[in-house]
Predict the structure.
Amino acid sequence: MKNRIEEIRKARGVNQEELAKALGVSRQTISSLENGRYNPSIELAYKLSKYFGMTIEEVFIFEEAEK
Amino acid sequence: MRDYSKRIYLSIFWIIVGAALFAAGSFGKIDSFWSGMGGALIGVGIVQTIRWAHYRNDPEYKEKFDTQTHDERNRFIANKAWAWAGYLSVLTGAAAAIAFKVASKDDISYFCSIAVCLLMILYWICWLVLKRKY
């Protein structure tokens, strides 16, 4: 799933380390999320959106998988 | 992780058990297999004791350790690695069973076949348990 984490994070002037610490995850997890290599759990997606003061739909871009 | 004191005691317990096995093996009371296991337990116990003592005394290490332990991506990777390891074990065992049969090593082939069957049974038991849980 695509997301706007990197874009929003940079716009807020937050680095990966700070975001990771605020969410209680490793910096590598933030990096993987930004690169789209790892999809977060609903809990982490919720925490991320809440941290940015946005809705999940604003942070994550849902695209129907091709059949 | 709040129970680090218990973990230190457990690590010390393994050192004591390991030392007892090693000593008994060294004096010829038990088989050398057990003294080897005793040596391994001493090593693991020492490493774990140092690790938990470090965890207790260094807040920075504690925070890093807790983050790495509870990180959901790390857990996901660990689960995936176990799944791959299990799957590859079955494939390797099956391939080995065929290879040994072709090489007329019937006993080893039989052993590999049984191991693969046991793994498959274990998989189905786990699957049924997890199916009930989720």
About this structure: Helices of chain A lie at 5-11, 16-23, 27-35, 42-52, 56-59. The interface with chain B takes residues 20-21, 24-26, 28-29, 32, 38, 40-41, 43-44 of chain A (CB under 8 Å). The radius of gyration of chain A is 11 Å. DSSP finds five helices and two strands in chain A.
